[in-house]
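In the present case, backbone shapes were mapped to integers, as reproduced here:
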Amino acid sequence: MPDAEDTLARVVRDHAGRLAAALVELLGDFAAAEDVVADAVLTALERWPAEGIPDRPDAWLFTVARRRGLDVLRRQARLRDKLALLADPGPPDPAEKLRLLFTCCHPALAPQARVALTLKTVCGLTTAQLARAFLVPETTMAQRITRAKRKITAAGIPYRLPADDELGERLDGVLRVIYLLCNEGYLGTTQPHSRDLTADAEWLAASLADLMPREAEVLGLLALIRLHRARVAGRFDADGGLLLLRDQDRSRWDREAIDSAIRLLTRAGRLRRPGQYQLQAAIVACHAEAARWEDTDWPQIVLLYELLLRYAPSPVTRLHRAIALRYTKGVAAALSEVDAIPGLDRYHLFHATRAELLRELGRHEEARDANLRALALTANPAEQDVLTQRLRW
């Protein structure tokens, strides 16, 4: 019999966003909708282990949410009447998540708040996962999400797709949400890989590309996600262990998906509006097109990272550029660049990169300390295994 907690986690991931969207549309209140969903999830957590998993867990969760909403909002006649009319939303509406995405990404909200609220409400990421993605403490992220929900309610932000002349100003936030969703799915906080999250990210990006076919960055992001997904089969060994790029069997990569992504990049390039997602996709394409690790065009990758730093400067991009410098200017130059990067002390890959470079330079005690620091900062089992193996070197 399936484990009740595992089933509930899957149902919440797949359906909580849809349920929240239906409640938000009727109630016009993010906080109330999220509270109702959370209460229904808690009830399931208490009852399913004892009573068994329902035949239709999503419908059960919806029914309980509706009942709990009536209980919580009984004193508010207008909202009670609306909630009583709420019907099972049925099969997912392709526009539903896009409407919720654009609602959360309203320009009245601070940019980081837009992204955090959307990833939590629409995509079901936890506050801990979001804190990791933003490199901030979990309490800070929780406060940011709460403020964003209050702002939406107070400002009366409508639940709808924006008019054509409003799409552009909301696009950056929506793209950032989809990008972070892909990152969490590709190598998440606590699991090696979530195909559901990366598939959801690709579906959202493809839906945006249909809505905005002449937006170069939309095409670039879709290409980037497709390139990442094309390489998933080669990223893990038979036991589920993480394989680094240089150790992967490239014959297992999905060449059809790679070709499709490169065609998207070509379309985006013809629009002559370069941006960060196109540049990131171009970097991944350099790796995807190399038949062997030894064939990687590192000078081109360094150049692309330098361009990326102009469009979207960040410490993480500087870190990736430093890794590429290892193959053009040597280990010492790469380490010097890494050590000059501020603001990444809570980022496990910063310390893992330092550890590898220090080891290559023969500074083994320092390498061990950096590896231990990286290990303490990641909860992902696949990454933990790699770092643990390095400690045995």
